[in-house]
Design a protein that fits this description.
Blueprint: H1 2-19, H2 23-46, E1 51-52, E2 56-57, H3 60-83, H4 89-111, H5 115-133, H6 139-167, H7 180-186, H8 192-210, H9 217-225, H10 228-234, H11 237-253, H12 259-281, H13 287-308, H14 311-341, H15 352-355, H16 357-370, H17 378-391, H18 395-421, H19 442-456, H20 460-469
Antiparallel strand pairs: 1-2
Helix pairs in contact: 1-2, 1-4, 2-3, 2-4, 3-4, 3-10, 3-11, 3-14, 3-20, 4-5, 5-6, 5-11, 6-8, 6-9, 8-11, 9-10, 9-13, 10-14, 12-13, 12-18, 13-14, 13-17, 13-18, 14-16, 14-17, 14-19, 16-18, 16-19
């Protein structure tokens, strides 16, 4: 009943926010929703293993990803208040109504224990985030919004075909029952051909959300025009939704003869994601697009981790968590950078350390964290991925990944250092830096500090959640 109350309150708060005539009242409603989301996360921790409303279960993976969303809720809301403070009341309300809806849909997707319910919530996130992408009402925003809706809907349709093939596992007797627990009871007797086809459709379909090759382009365009706090969610918690959908199916199929096939497909998708990310980051001229391709790189590493197995399983979930914290902090910083430099274009950027030292420190610290350079906790994740590849004698994949990551490290570090210290290549007309309070960077430093802390110490509750999430996977050592 508590979960039902959460969904009812989310709908009410989103609707009230939409029709509000006062910005202050809207902000109170958004903060109330943030408190409700944090409360349902606490409830999920206290109810681990339980099922509510028949279609939602508080399993370890769901609690882990829901906790990440709850941790990012207040920073996202705070930076959203700053971004929309000069908007009209109507646009201000539409933004926050969409934000509430998006977070509620993501929470539902994390907790769903049935493939069809998960699919419904994933499709719902598409509609909610489309409203947020179009917030600035520019031609580029309109184009990116339609691209996002069209490609994501196409991807979700492909994922639905995968769900249909999952239904064939049952034959005609019990096809409507698509819960993950019921799948586990009959999956061993399923036709491997159906499993392979279903996995391909699910991987390609939900990669629109995960931002994984070959459907990665939709998130790249969305990042260029979306408000920075929205980009922070698209690149982290929303990508986690796509990952979760693929991971649920992978876990179900891991005890069948198609495990090797799935691993090969994931490794191929991961390597191609790294290749595309490296190629485009080397020529990136837009800072938010650069960060978007960095997300593609990290999702490629997650795919490689799953494909490598063994230590890679733990590394995949740890990387998902740490990437969410590090990448969101960088996107929050983009909102401040745009007010100081009045641009996201690389050639027009420079001297950021002189103009706003706190922001420049976030950029450089975030760069170290997201590139998995010690003392970033992401270094531990990537080291575990490489260790899994060595254990499997996947030397060619290991060498390819290291080479591509070297290009990515070079591309991002050169650009961040240029923004921080160099003179803009296009001087143009000088514009006075906009007002930014250094207090705005506090949330970013906190998130990055957590990423660095994980390099030296992983809290027992974190290791426990990840270990329970991967307990059913084969080949663990």
């Amino acid at each position: 009943m508590i979960l039902l109350l959460f969904f009812i309150l989310s709908v009410v708060l989103s609707a009230v926010t939409l029709v509000s005539r006062n910005k202050a009242f809207t902000r109170v409603m958004v903060l109330l929703f943030a408190a409700v989301l944090i409360a349902i996360t606490v409830h999920a921790w206290l109810s681990r293993g339980r099922t509510e409303l028949e279609y939602f279960t508080y399993d370890s993976t769901a609690v882990l990803l829901l906790s990440v969303l709850a941790l990012l809720t207040l920073p996202t809301v705070y930076h959203g208040f700053i971004y929309t403070r000069d908007d009209t009341v109507k646009r201000h309300n539409i933004y926050h109504s969409g934000l509430i809806a998006l977070m509620a849909f993501m929470a539902g997707a994390y907790l769903a224990n049935t493939m069809t319910v998960l699919w419904i919530f994933v499709e719902a996130t598409t509609l909610a985030v489309a409203v947020l992408i179009y917030h600035d009402r520019t031609e580029m925003a309109l184009e990116a919004t339609w691209k996002y809706v069209f490609i994501c809907s196409t991807g979700i349709a492909l994922a639905y075909l995968g769900i249909l093939f999952l239904g064939f596992i049952y034959g005609r007797g019990d096809a409507p029952n698509l819960s993950f627990s019921s799948f586990g009871a009959v999956i061993s007797s399923a036709n491997p051909l159906y499993l392979k086809i279903a996995f391909i459709f699910v991987l390609v379909g939900f990669s629109t959300k995960m931002g994984l090759f070959p459907m990665h382009t939709v998130t790249i365009d969305a990042h260029s025009v979306a408000p920075p706090p929205v980009s922070a969610l698209i690149s982290t918690t929303l990508m986690n939704v796509g990952f979760l959908a693929i991971y649920r199916v992978y876990t179900l199929f891991s005890g069948t003869p198609v495990l090797s096939f799935m691993n090969h497909v994931l490794i191929l998708a991961g390597v191609l994601s790294l290749l595309v990310a490296a190629g485009y980051m080397l020529k990136a001229k837009h800072l938010k697009r650069m960060l978007a391709y960095s997300s593609l790189e990290n999702m490629g590493l997650v795919a490689l981790a799953l494909g490598a197995g063994s230590y890679g399983y733990y590394a995949a979930l740890l990387l998902i968590v740490l990437h969410s914290l590090a990448k969101s902090s960088l996107f929050y910083q983009m909102g401040q950078l745009s007010r100081i430099l009045h641009t996201f274009r690389l050639d027009d950027s420079g001297r950021y350390m002189k103009l706003y030292p706190a922001g420049a420190m976030v950029l450089m610290t975030g760069m170290i964290c997201i590139l998995a350079i010690p003392p970033s906790g992401m270094f531990i994740s990537e080291l575990m991925i490489f260790r899994a590849m060595v254990a499997n004698s996947q030397w060619f994949i290991l060498a390819t990944a290291v080479i591509l990551l070297s290009f990515i490290i070079y591309a991002m570090s050169v650009r961040v250092m240029h923004v921080s210290f160099s003179t803009p290549r296009n001087e143009g007309e000088f514009k006075l830096p906009g007002p930014v309070n250094p207090v705005e960077t506090v949330s970013q430093f906190i998130l990055l500090a957590i990423v660095i802390m994980i390099c030296f110490w992983q809290p027992p509750f974190l290791t426990d959640l990840i270990s329970n999430s991967i307990a059913s996977l084969p080949g663990l050592k």
